[in-house]
Amino acid sequence: LFFSILAHTQLTMFVFIFQSVCPMGGGATRLYSALTQTSSSSPLPLPASPQPADTTLDPAFLELLRQCEEALGDRAPRLHRTFTHVNDGDGVPSSSVRVMQWNILAQALGEGLDSFVQCPPEALSWSRRKYLILEEILTYRPHILCLQEVDHYYDTLQPVLAGLGYSGNFCPKPWSPCLEVEGNNGPDGCALFFDQSRYELLDSVNIRLSAMRIPTNQIAVVTMLRCRRSGRCVCVAVTHLKARSGWEWFRSAQGSDFLRHLQNLVQKHAGDPAGAPMSDIPLFICGDFNAVPTEEVYRRFITSPLGLDSAYKKLSQDGLTEPEYTTWKIRSTGECCTTLDYIWYSQDTLRVDRVLDMPTEEQIGPNRLPSFSYPSDHLSLVCDFSFKAKE
C-alpha cells in the first residue's frame, strides 16, 4: 500500500511539473494525465519491437504513446524503422540491455546557428519538437539512454523521464554556443539516463575533456551501474567531440583523454574488494564523435586495450562497415550525409542481438533532417545487447 501511494504521488507530481514547464492544451494534457491512471511504480516493459502497437506493452504505456501522437496532431508520418537480428550465438538468458544513442539537436542551435535552410521554421519549434523527441524515446524504451545537445534538461527531459522511472545526469558544455542565441534555454550538454528498476547507481563523473593536456569545451558523462537482476556491473559513457573539418587531430586527442578516463574508472571499481575484475566490467560508450570512420579517433577506439567494437557495423553484410549515414542535413554551407554517431561496446563480454536500421533516402525525404517527421538532424541509434556466457 505504501509503495502504491508513493508511486501515485510521484506520478501526480510529474504531471504537474510537465504541465507547468511544457504547456500545451488538449492532447498534451491527457497525455501526461494518463500517467496517473496506473498505480504501479514499476517502469514499463521493454518493447519486443519498435512498433507502439506491440501487445506486450503495458496498457498505460500504449495510451501514453497514443496521446503523444494526438498531441502532435496532423503531422507527417514517422520514419518507419525496424530491428535487424544479428545475434549468431547464445547469450545469458534474461540479460538483454537496450541502449539508445541520440544527438537530439539543441533547440537554440536548431532555431538559430545551425541554419537548416530546407527545414520549415514551424518544424523547428520547441512546441512540436519536444513531443517528437519524447515519442522517439518512448517508442524504443531503452534501459540506457545517452543524449547530446541537450538544452532542455531541467525543464523538460529530466522531469518527464523521472516520471517514467529513469534517473539521469547532465553535464553542460563550459562555453555552449547555445548561449550566443537570443532567448536560449541555457547551455547544451550531454545527458545519461538509466532505468532505475534495472540498475542501481554506483558512481558517476562529469568530465571536461582535454587535448594535449589543455581543457576543451567538450565533455563526457561516465556512469558505473550495477544490474539489480544479475549483480553485474556495467560502465556507461556518453560524449560529444569537437565538430568541424580541420579539427581531426583535436578529436583524436580528446578521444585519447576520454579513453584514459574510462580505463581509470573501470580500474577503480575493479580494485574495490566488492567489485568485479576489470575484464568482467563491460562498457557501453555512446556519442556524436563528429568523426567519420576513417579518422584517427575512430582507429583509437577500435584498437583500444579496452577491447571495443562498434555495434552498428553489424548492419553491414560483412560486419565490418559502418552505415552510410547517421546524419543527413542541408545547411547554408551545403548538404552533409555522413556517419558521425556510434555505440561502442566491449566485444569480449557483450553480444549484439538486434540493431535498429536506418531509414532510406526516400523515407527521409528531399529536404533531409530535421523535418516535420523527425526532430533532429541526427538519427537515433538503438541496439539490444546481451552478456556473453562465461566459459
TrEMBL record:
Domain of life from the UniProt record: Eukaryota
Cofactor entry: Mg(2+)
SUPFAM superfamilies: DNase I-like
Pfam families with a match to the protein in the record: Exo_endo_phos (PF03372)
Subcellular location: Cytoplasm
Gene3D superfamilies listed in its UniProt record: Endonuclease/exonuclease/phosphatase
GO terms, molecular function: metal ion binding; poly(A)-specific ribonuclease activity
Signal peptide segment: 1-23
Main location (coarse class): cytoplasm
GO CC terms of this entry: cytoplasm
Keywords of this entry: Biological rhythms, Cytoplasm, Hydrolase, Magnesium, Metal-binding, Signal
Endonuclease/exonuclease/phosphatase domain ranges (all copies): 100-378
GO BP terms in the entry: circadian rhythm; nucleobase-containing compound metabolic process
Family: Belongs to the CCR4/nocturin family.
Protein known as: Nocturnin
Species of provenance: Cyclopterus lumpus (Lumpsucker)
